[in-house]
Amino acid sequence: MLESTDNVILEKTFSSIIRKSLGEKPLQVIKKRLAEKYGISLYQAVNQHYEKLSDILKENFAEGGAANIEKQFLAAIISSQKQTTSESKEKVIVDHDLVKQIMEDLGDADMMSIINSVMKKPKLVLEILKSCKLPQTSGYRKINKLADDGLLVVSGYDTGSDGRKIFKYTTSFDSIAVFMENGKAKINIKPKKLGKNQYVSIPFLKK
What are the structural domains, with CATH classification, of the chain? Predict the structure, then answer.
């Protein structure tokens, strides 16, 4: 998976929280332990293997300290991925590359199944995989791609029996449709309504 701007920002956000709370040395300890124990980088842990990052935090810091770090980081993730706007109007996407990317996502049967699964209610990844009857490896990959492409956003989290925080996902939109105009494919998309005069600020519409 390519390092998207948003994913790199998440890594920098986590690093900033650790530096501010504990200093540079603990951050290097976390990176070292992730590599030693799981063979992954901090970037991979933050974006694809959060449960492993959570494990390393609990291994190296007091329970209260680890929980506080996770709380700060999860709040930052939800804030960055679920920004709101008062703009409720449908948008028309005309950029060729963006239209192609979204059409490829919508044209994938598994990805459409994932989208339909979380349209009305946010779900945990395992709930999505179960309802869509997808294997873990390809299912995780496709959920991550939809999130990277801006069609899914984080919408809260649950706490597991072991204290780990597990993200929930929903769509960034309430409706989406492909149409042709003057021989070119375009996309109509309406941001998801969150509350009175509050709508998801769809990531790719800000570019």
Answer: 5-81 (no CATH), 84-206 (1.10.10.10)
